[in-house]
Amino acid sequence: MGTDWEELQKENPLVCEVLADDTQEGHEKRLNRYAQAKARQQLIVDHIIVRNAEGDKPPLIRELKALTECGSFLIFRYYLQPSIYRLIGGCTCKKHLLCALCAIRRAAKCIAVYSEKLDHVLQSGEYEAVFITLTIKNGEDLTERFEHLQNSVKALLHKRRNSLAKRPKTYTVFKEVVGAVYSYEVTYKAETGFHPHLHMIGLVPKGRFQYTEKTIKKKVAQVPEELWSGLVKDWQEITGDSFIVDVRSVDNRDGFLAALVETFKYALKLNDMDPEVQVECYERLKARRLLGSLGLLFGVKLPEDLNDELLPEDLEWIDIVYQYSGVTFGYQEISRGNVNLPANFNEQVVKGRLYRDIPFNDHGSDLMLGYDEKGRFGLQRKVLPDAPF
Fold first, then answer.
1. Coil, strand, or helix at residue 221?
2. Predicted structure pTM score
3. pLDDT tier at 128 (50, 70, 90 boundaries)?
């Protein structure tokens, strides 16, 4: 892609999440990264509280409760050998259009799953990857602009299917894309309005296209001229008002990872949006399908669980609970929960005692830290006594 990978690492927390290690140093960086996401989330919470109090728009009661609870506590499992940390609880709301923390975890999970799938397909040597971006003109009406983009993409996919028929009635060079995964993204600027666009990683037969070196936005890229020019023509015909299409080769490992990050990064550029705009985007897009796939990349199951994969149970581990502080804007260890340690383990290493039923009293939540009926430590719903009347 011609992407400066070191520069991308510095500016994109998702890159750090994808490449993060599970060592003590990596764990501390991860907590800092999550604290920044939680701080951003708190801005959204504050805006929703004011909005609900004003009463001019439908209140977001469930969203407020979910965001308040999500990430207030994080539970990590520390494995003594090989001395690594894994997230096992805390990201609970799964509202990635509102919650920066869940957006990071969701995107990282998508990248991990599709990276494995793409590696498997590309190992055959029959295909090569290209990165495609489709854009439309900006506008003030997000719903109208997004539907225009989504309907145009559907029309392009329909034209591809017709072109692949035994007796095709139409032709598009896009039929050469034998597999793809794509996602929608929305950015916003007060001067120009909403800018919905689509990022796609596509697979094409190896050697099918000739590439020309071009400089795009001060970076060198290898462009498949036939595919690019054909898509420009199709896209302008379909949209009626847009012709800006970017197509380039994904030619090395760094470019491959950069393409995955660009495709699966947050649907909204959270840090660039005012909370009011972000909440508006959430309301307009929450029922929309923002990911899609076709051909060889169709049917990949995305994980619903935002936690890390656990290591074998027979390893020695300690569960550590962190609480977010709105004073320090960081996570602080507050307890050590479940343990799986040998009988002769030196308790001094554990530092502290086992905590049970620590009240979760932030914003009147009905959650608490404690053990469930199976002895698992984590966030639990309080069992409230029956009313006396």
1. strand
2. 0.82
3. very high
Domain boundary among 262, 295, 328: 295
Count of structural domains, the chain: 2
Question: Which domain range does residue 194 map to?
Answer: 105-295
Least confident window among 1-5, 38-42, 301-305: 1-5
- Examine the pLDDT at 131 and tell me if it is beyond 90: yes
Q: Are both 133 and 259 inside the same structural domain?
A: yes
Is residue 94 located within the same domain as residue 111?
no
Q: Going by C-beta distance under 8 Å and a sequence separation of 6 or more, which residues neighbour residue 96?
A: 102, 103, 106, 107, 266, 267
Nearest CA to 341 out of 313, 380, 378, 362 is that of 313
- Cis-peptide, bond into residue 59, ω within 30° of zero: no
With CA atoms as reference, report the closest residue to 95 among 123, 121, 69.
Answer: 69
Contact (CB, 8 A) for 185 and 198: yes
CA pair distance 212, 153, nearest whole angstrom: 26
Instruction: Answer yes or no: do 326 and 268 share one domain.
Output: no
Whether residue 219 sits in one domain with residue 194 = yes
How many CB atoms are located within 10 Å of the residue 129 CB? Answer: 21
